[in-house]
Design goal:
There is one protein chain. This protein has about 400 residues and is an alpha/beta fold. The chain has two domains: about 50-160, Galactose-binding domain-like (Jelly Rolls, Sandwich), CATH 2.60.120; about 165-390, 3-Layer(aba) Sandwich (Rossmann fold). About 30% of the residues lie in helices and about 25% in strands. The strands form two sheets. Strands 1, 2, 3, 4, 5, 6, 7, 8 and 9 form a nine-stranded antiparallel beta sheet that branches. A five-stranded parallel beta sheet has the order 11-10-12-13-14, with helices on both faces. A hairpin with a 2-residue loop joins strand 5 (about 100-105) and strand 6 (about 105-115). Mean pLDDT is about 90; it is low at about 1-40.
Length: about 400
């Protein structure tokens, strides 16, 4: 059954709630101070009781939860017989509809793309025994956003999932997004249907570290230029432009709002570690040009200053190399220049080896395979564990 069939009921219920809330507000403003002190605080909605994953946007005006960036989502513990999630997506075809993974107690039980006219996801509970429900947006923000517009608990109870031991933020491009990882044909191009960030080194690393994560990643984006197949600079596709935002999308976004117009509150997620994996797309523009490579190094050092400003206590790891090592030396130079100018030594470099197609396979558009991502995650996690004492 599609979501549109439930809209009338939802709107009717929302209207009744709004009217009741309006009356309560009027009474509160006109009552005495003692009466106000005796009033109960407004109860949290079930959507507010959940644990939010990544830069997930809660719209308190209509109690809806929006997901844009790869890996964004929510997690909650549910005690009851059945729970239903009413989700909506952006308009689009198979190549640009949001792909979502639904997990129960850590096992993926549903893998679907969310249509614009909505989807109802129903899960069976275990009565008095709680289950964990986690929903992760597998595809990236630029082409697809989705939202949770209603949670029906059928008399059950919701509580936020437990936090993990550590916190990590990963900033990157298509490699971080898990571009094409479910498509073993390197001649194929982008599709949200074959993108899965949970199979990327990014979330694999977080899982190995027992860390909650937040991803900020866009396919084709870079430090000074997005991917360039013609030698021209594409400075409209830069990670630094959107690092302070909820994301960027070409599509309809978060209902009536665009993620690129919403400022991210960095106090909401304070990572112990920040990983940066940027330069693969810049290399297509720099193409061995000394002046352009210097621009990359200089701009990278400046971006590090901004990342540090927003994450004053995090250990920063700069990584590069999976799809090309042309700019690895310049990445090292950027880190050295940053440290020299700021005195900040809470930063390190991790060089990834070039992917080995013969041994590990290849994914769409020459992107890393699941096996390559696993190797990168194991390498990075080992460095972080030893470095951080985790």
């Amino acid at each position: 059954m599609k979501l549109r069939k439930f809209i009338a009921l939802i709107v009717s219920g929302a209207l009744c709630m709004a009217l009741a809330a309006g009356c309560g507000s009027s009474d509160s403003s006109s009552g005495t101070s003692s009466e106000n002190e005796n009033k109960e605080e407004t109860a949290l909605t079930d959507i507010q009781k959940m644990k939010y994953i990544g830069r997930t946007y809660y719209n308190e005006e209509n109690d809806r939860l929006w997901m844009g960036l790869s890996g964004s989502g929510f997690s909650f513990d549910y005690t009851g017989d059945k729970v239903s999630m009413f989700m909506t997506g952006n308009p689009g075809g198979k190549t640009d509809k949001a792909r979502v993974g639904v997990y129960v107690d850590g096992e993926r039980v549903k893998d679907l793309q969310i249509p614009a006219d909505g989807e109802i996801i129903e899960l069976d509970g275990k009565g008095s025994e709680p289950i964990n429900v986690t929903v992760v947006k597998l595809s990236e923000c630029a082409m697809s956003c989705c939202g949770l517009i209603k949670l029906e608990t059928n008399g059950g109870t919701v509580s936020p999932a437990a936090d993990k031991k550590h916190r990590i933020e990963i900033i990157g491009d298509s490699i971080t997004c898990g571009y094409g990882v479910d498509d073993p044909d390197m001649s194929h191009s982008f599709s949200t249907a074959t993108e899965d960030c949970t199979k990327s080194y990014s979330i694999k690393t977080a899982n190995l570290l027992d860390a909650d994560y937040s991803l900020v990643s866009f396919s084709g984006y870079g430090i000074i230029s997005g991917y360039s197949g013609d030698g021209k600079k594409h400075d409209d596709q830069l990670i630094p432009t959107y690092y302070d935002k909820y994301g960027f999308t070409y599509n309809s976004g978060f209902g009536g709002k665009k993620p690129q117009d919403l400022e991210w509150d960095f106090s909401r997620f304070v990572p112990e570690v920040v990983v940066i994996n940027l330069g693969t797309n810049d290399a297509s523009y720099a193409a061995g040009n000394e002046e352009r490579e210097k621009e990359y190094a200089d701009s990278y050092a400046e971006f590090l200053k901004h990342v540090r400003e927003k994450n004053p206590s995090a250990r920063i790891y700069c990584t590069l190399g999976t799809m090309g090592t042309q700019l690895n030396e310049k990445m090292h130079e950027a880190v050295e220049a940053y440290t020299s100018s700021t005195g900040d030594t809470n930063i390190a470099v991790v060089d990834f080896p070039l992917q080995n197609q013969n041994e590990d396979g290849i994914a769409a558009d020459w992107h890393p395979s699941d096996k390559t991502h696993t190797k990168s995650a194991e390498q990075l996690a080992a460095v972080i564990k030893a470095d951080m004492g985790w």
